[in-house]
Design a protein that fits this description.
Elements (H helix, E strand, L loop, with lengths): L1 H7 L3 H15 L9 H9 L7 H13 L25 H8 L4 H8 L13 H12 L8 E2 L1 H21 L5 H16 L2 E2 L2 H24 L3 H17 L3 H17 L3 H11 L3 H4 L3 H17 L3 H16 L16 H14 L3 H14 L6 H17 L3 H14 L6 H14 L8 H16 L2
Parallel strand pairs: 1-2
């Protein structure tokens, strides 16, 4: 433990403060009083109890940007190494994630986002995944065919379009229930052929991925990470590399948004590895590429980020109208690419370029079908204007963002409203009517979004 702590460069008081932050985030009230003395006792050999080992490992993992296990710092049980999520049976993981135990769901909803959980399995795991699905014993008497596969696809498309219009908070619970009741029964059934099994696993992976995305949009980040991990496992067992890349891209997006740039790069690199990029259609390649660009920019790799942006632009340009594409990429358009490009340029310090791209996104998006993302884009654009000192311009854009938030239930739009109030706080007592109006409207959004 002492060696790992030394690697962080933290003093014992700083580590204690980091443990308290993670404990507070997790709702582990019993650890919010951790001090330097606790750290010293743990280093000396006292075994922390309860959730302390997990919280301590998470604090260290975040600092070092790599997974730290209890065993690595002397807190594991000898002879009983932790089992990676990747090596838990897929159906077991699905049942566990969908447990009806109220306390279990409450704890998961408030669980800390696990950086350790982002470590990906070795190459052999991916190679062996399809065979694991083929040899899995049926657990239900359900005979699965194209009608079940089509039902999953139709339900996923319904929730996907609803998510784009109204946000992840609206309908998320219903999708989770469908996955854990119906899809779980299909996955445990029998299949007429290996092709039928693969198609069902791929359809299930897309539904589970969407559940993760809706959790991410609801700011339930550990819940989202677990669904994403399960979706990758299902995609691997379906032997669908582009689909696995699609989900890994979402994991990279989330990690980058949460400030874990090194993990974002690792995940986005994995999303374009092997056939995940080369076998994907141009539209999906562009999606993978632009998320990779932003993760690279956040990690300080400016040249690589700009190269990735150019490639993503070229890939989307190569997407032919009417060409057969997976339904999961229906939402990705010029407006989507412009939004992510703007965020990347903002990180790179090109504020003028970012502003141009945000406006391109606003101008080219179908706001009716993509209400949530439209509101988020306008929120970012207003923040960019405010950062440059253009308060009146920011308020004008934020007014449009707040209009777009009507009927949207999203953690990301809520974060946008929080940003508005924070950036306008210096102007509250200066008699700027536009700032006062936006502040009051944003407060109203925060009061109604739960």
């Amino acid at each position: 433990m002492a060696a790992v702590i030394a690697e962080t460069g933290w003093s014992q008081p700083k580590l204690a403060a980091a443990v308290v932050r993670v404990a507070t985030e997790s709702g582990a009230a019993e650890l919010t009083g951790v001090t330097r003395s606790h750290i010293a006792m743990w280093i000396a050999g006292t075994q922390p109890s309860g959730s302390a080992p997990r919280i301590l490992c998470e604090a260290l993992s975040r600092r070092l940007q790599r997974p730290i296990t209890p065993g690595e710092i002397g807190l594991g049980t000898p002879g009983l190494p932790a089992v990676s999520e990747w090596h838990v049976d897929t159906l077991t993981a699905l049942v566990d994630l969908g447990s009806n135990n109220v306390e279990r769901r409450r704890l998961l909803a408030g669980a800390t986002y696990s950086v350790s959980g982002l470590a990906l399995p070795h190459r052999t795991w991916w190679d062996e995944a399809p065979d694991r699905a083929k040899t899995r014993t049926a657990t239900t008497g359900r005979r699965v065919g194209m009608s079940e596969i089509n039902a999953v696809r139709e339900m996923t498309e319904f929730f996907s379009r609803r998510d784009q219009r109204q946000g992840g908070l609206d309908g998320r619970t219903a999708l989770h229930q469908y996955i854990h009741d119906d899809i779980a029964a299909y996955l445990g059934g029998t299949f007429a052929s290996d092709q039928t099994r693969s198609r069902l696993y791929a359809a299930a992976a897309e539904a589970v991925y969407l559940a993760g995305w809706m959790s991410f949009d609801s700011s339930q980040h550990e819940d989202a990470r677990r669904y994403f991990t399960l979706a990758v496992k299902l995609a691997a067992e379906a032997d669908d590399e582009p689909l696995a890349g699609h989900v890994l891209r979402a994991m990279a997006h989330q990690a980058t948004d949460l400030g874990y740039s090194k993990r974002g790069v690792d995940l986005s690199s994995a999303s374009v590895d092997r056939g995940r990029y080369t076998l994907a259609v141009p539209r999906e390649r562009a999606l993978l590429g632009v998320v990779r660009a932003r993760s690279l920019a956040a990690n300080g790799q400016q040249r690589e980020a700009r190269e990735a942006l150019l490639l993503a632009e070229n890939d989307l340009a190569a997407a032919e109208p009417g060409h057969e594409e997976p339904s999961r990429v229906w939402f990705f358009s010029e407006a989507s690419l412009a939004h992510e490009t703007a965020r990347t340029l903002w990180v790179l310090g090109d504020l003028r370029g970012a502003e141009t791209e945000f406006w391109r996104s606003v101008r080219t998006r179908n706001a009716g079908a993509f209400g949530r993302t439209h509101a988020v884009t306008l929120g970012f654009l207003g923040a960019l204007e405010a950062q440059q000192g253009s308060v009146e311009a920011a308020c004008h854009v934020w007014s449009q963002a707040l209009d777009a938030m009507e009927g949207v239930q999203s953690g990301r739009t809520r974060e946008s409203a929080v940003t508005m109030r924070r950036m306008l706080s210096p102007y509250r007592n200066r008699g700027i009517s536009a700032a006062a109006e936006i502040d009051e409207r944003a407060r109203g959004v925060l009061a109604r979004v739960v």
